[in-house]
Amino acid sequence: MAERRYRVGVVGTSWWADLEHLPGLRARTDVELAALCGRNPERLGALAAKYGIPRTFTDWRELVAAGGLDAVVLATPNALHREQALAAIDAGLHVICEKPLALDLRQAREMAARADAAGRKTLTFFTHRAVGAAAHVKRLVDAGFLGRPLHATATYFTASHLKEDKPLAWRMQRAVSGTGVLGDIGSHLVDLVRWWLGDLARVAAMWQTVTRERAGGVADADESCAFLAELASGAQAVFQASKLVAGRGNHQRVELHGTKASLVYEADPGFDPTWEGRVLAGTPARAGLEPVPLPQDLAARLAGVDERSGRAEAYRRLTDPFFAAIARGGPVSPDFRDGAAVQAVLDAVARAAEERRWVDVEA
Ligand SMILES: NC(=O)c1ccc[n+]([C@@H]2O[C@H](COP(=O)([O-])OP(=O)(O)OC[C@H]3O[C@@H](n4cnc5c(N)ncnc54)[C@H](OP(=O)(O)O)[C@@H]3O)[C@@H](O)[C@H]2O)c1
């Protein structure tokens, strides 16, 4: 029997759509790139030609209303996610939505509830679950490698906001981003730690905005954020996300410490062309960490892959459960419920930073 092909529309024509979603979807044999929406007609036309997409729209509402799609990818600024996702679900579409899922928990929960009620499949696009090392840490933790988890440290560093001439962008304005670095890159850390160790229960936080005057206006969103977290399991964690770290490209490092062993996850997604990352492990018996080889199925598909093919393989891993769930039912992880659970942490961290106190994460 011929493989079913899902007709997918993409909303957003930015660098990110061109780097991640469009090549990733084109590489899937079960997807037909059927429609594309962007506000800039020249850019829209150029990307439609590059990826062979037959139908184009400059208004996302028209793309949704036009029909003929099974699923839509929302690669648009955070402030648009709620309205676009609800409209797509109401039109019967399955939805992949970028992270952070929404501006706040209320919006995120509304999106998840609407999808559940309509029986639509969803995926919150937490890219870094598809890094080989991240997926291997998940397997090791689930197999009991750590023993009882005791504590974790999680950092995500880039240098992008050290450029004082970087102009104002929506990510720097809380009204349209929700939060700054916290939602943009901290959300990935929260998702990974929650995926590996379970829900976060309460947080204490601080954040800072170093360059407020930018070309184009005033930035009010955090450029670095640090917080302590107590997990529902009783384990403790320290998080720091910052775009003010000279020498860092897109660097993530998470240490997990348990009664039997430690695990270290390290990756520079996008800078490491394989998207494999590294896993290191330590035991109480000796000082020092040893590299843990990745199993074959989590290593990059090709040795010496170019940047795009490592990325496309990671894209396949992340989106496989979504398309499988459309075909055969069953859950997707991370879905909108997971996106909302991460959003609950982001809201609690923002409140903790503003009010300088411990805040419970809404369950
Ligand atoms: N998962 C990851 O690792 C990852 C990485 C990067 C980004 N993201 C997420 O992806 C999303 C988009 O980020 P980005 O960097 O691509 O943002 P961006 O560069 O601002 O591009 C967003 C796209 O949405 C379009 N858009 C903006 N306002 C619109 C409106 N009112 N109606 C219709 N389209 C509109 C933009 O069109 P114009 O070009 O006309 O402005 C552009 O095509 C964000 O949620 C971000 O957090 C995730």
From TrEMBL:
The cross-references to SUPFAM superfamilies, in alphabetical order and at most eight, read: Glyceraldehyde-3-phosphate dehydrogenase-like, C-terminal domain, NAD(P)-binding Rossmann-fold domains
- Residues in domain Gfo/Idh/MocA-like oxidoreductase N-terminal? 7-121
Keyword annotations of the record: Oxidoreductase
Lipid metabolism as UniProt keyword: no
Annotated TM spans: none
Residues covered by the GFO/IDH/MocA-like oxidoreductase domain: 136-263
Keyword Protein biosynthesis, does the record have it? no
Q: What is the protein name stated in its UniProt record?
A: Oxidoreductase domain protein
Its source organism is: Anaeromyxobacter oryzae
